Each structure stands twice: as C-alpha cells, then as structure tokens.
Structure to design on (260 residues):
C-alpha cells in the first residue's frame, strides 16, 4: 500500500465457542474482520450465525475463546459496553414506535446515544443539533420524503431502512445486520443492497444474509458456517466456486441458493 498503512483488524474472534449443555452452537470460530470490510456470514439454518452475532454484540457470553474490538479484549464486556465500544446492530421491529413518525423514532435513537433519552430539559442549541443529525440520518437511508410519516404507514422495506438510521445514530464502528432483507420484495432488497453499499468505509459491516445475490454484491469476504464451525472463508468468487460449500447447502436442501 502506497501510504504504508496496515489494514487494522476491527474485529477478532479467537477460538470462540458457545455451548448449550453438551451442544456446540458455535464451535471454535477464529475470524478477523478488517476495518472498513464488508463481511458476510452465510450457512444453512441452525449453523450458528445468529449465535455468533450475539457473541460479537455481547448479548451472549462466549463459552470459550476471546473477542477483540480494535485490538481491545471485550470478551467479558456486556452488550452496553460493547455498544459504547462501537458495536451497532439493526433493531428488531418491536423497537420502532408505530404511532410516531420516522423523524421522531430517529430523534429518540439520537437522544438515547447522547444520554438524554426522553428528558424534556434539552438546551435549544442541542435541539438544533439533534434535528440536524436526524435529518442527515434519514437522508442517508433514503427516507427523507417519509420523515414525517408514521412508522405504522411504512412498508416493511422502509422500516428496515429506518432501523439502519437508528443503528447509525450511535455512530458505530461495526454494524451487524442479521438477515436484513428477510421478507423484502426484490425491489426493496435491491434498494437495501444499495443502501449498504453506499455506507462509508469508515464503517465495518458484518452481515448475515440468506440471499446470495445480496451477499455477492455487498461482501468483500464471506465466512461459511455449518454446524457451528467455520467451513470456509474467502472472497465471493472463491465461495461461489467452492465444492465444499455447495455440498453443505445441497446436503441441507439449500441447493436453490447456489443457482444465483
Ligand atoms: N438458547 C439456546 N439453547 C439451546 N440451543 C440453542 C439456543 N440458541 C440457539 N440454539 C441452537 O443453536 C443452533 C444455532 O442457532 P442459530 O440461531 O445461531 O442459527 P442460525 O445460523 O442463525 O440459523 P437461521 O439461519 O435459522 O437463523 C441451532 O441448532 C439452535 O437450535
Ligand atoms: Mg439466525
């Protein structure tokens, strides 16, 4: 690299495992995601993808191994500390207030991140800054024309776009998406893909996704999980032509995903 800059690891998983009794939902996963990378995790149902995400977000504690963020060991840090350390994830539907507007929902996320929550005593200057940030976030996810619409009136795809704006409010270094295009129409899915592609490279993205069209058009590298273990890792062209990966999908009745 001309600058002599070394691409720093943003996330390192070292021999990470999660067991439920004797069952290993995630088993000895070692994975490095560099800063700015778009990294997809794919694998059949029950492979351990969501469990792995929860281990990254701190929602679940590892049974074995270590989790490092920007070189700092956060293995014992809970969800809130990891969020403060830069881990963001898209919210579930239930976290959106259907009877409030898009702008009001995003404003709440911004206020939460500023530590002022629902407080009514916000200085006028801060109100202006919040409003500017809300407008910028809503614009970034392509919802500017819907800013004053109630969330209850949004389409499924628009709600997921709004969830991205809310996740971005925390200014995360790492953004986790767990099957963001599930339930979307093809055009919503295309729009979402463009949104993720347009996110700045200052943000690192870890994405679980079943739609391989989305995966191949977004990801720089792909990790394949099967029965909790990392089966293969590499750039899209390697994964696309991997006989081992194809066998896992064929074996679980997911052959259709490889037609893409
Ligand atoms: N709390 C739990 N207790 C016991 N087993 C669990 C628990 N959570 C997950 N599992 C099991 O761990 C395995 C991995 O689950 P996980 O949800 O991580 O899979 P996934 O790859 O996200 O699947 P999907 O594609 O269906 O979302 C599954 O066999 C699941 O049944
Ligand atoms: Mg899952």
């Amino acid at each position: 690299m001309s600058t002599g800059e070394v691409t720093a690891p943003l996330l390192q998983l070292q021999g990470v495992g999660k067991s439920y009794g004797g069952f290993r939902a995630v088993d000895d996963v070692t994975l490095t995601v560099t800063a700015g990378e778009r990294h997809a995790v794919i694998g059949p149902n029950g492979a351990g993808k969501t469990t792995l995400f929860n281990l990254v977000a701190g929602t679940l504690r590892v049974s074995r191994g270590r989790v490092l963020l920007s070189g700092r060991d956060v293995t014992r840090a809970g969800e809130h500390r990891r969020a403060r350390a830069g881990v963001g994830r898209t919210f579930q539907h239930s976290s959106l207030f259907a009877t409030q507007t898009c702008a009001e929902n995003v404003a709440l996320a911004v206020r939460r991140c500023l530590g002022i929550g629902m407080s009514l005593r916000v200085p006028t200057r801060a109100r202006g800054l919040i409003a500017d940030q809300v407008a910028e976030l809503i614009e970034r996810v392509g919802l500017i024309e819907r800013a004053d619409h109630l969330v209850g009136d949004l389409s499924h795809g628009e709600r997921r776009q709004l969830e991205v704006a809310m996740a971005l409010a925390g200014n995360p270094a790492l953004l986790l998406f767990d099957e963001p295009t599930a339930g979307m129409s093809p055009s919503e899915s295309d729009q979402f893909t463009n949104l993720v592609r347009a996110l700045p490279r200052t943000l690192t993205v870890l994405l679980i996704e079943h739609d391989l069209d989305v995966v191949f058009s977004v990801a720089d590298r792909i990790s394949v999980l099967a029965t909790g273990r990392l089966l293969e890792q590499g750039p899209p062209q390697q994964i696309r032509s991997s006989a081992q990966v194809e066998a896992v999908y064929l074996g679980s009745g997911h052959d259709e995903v490889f037609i893409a």
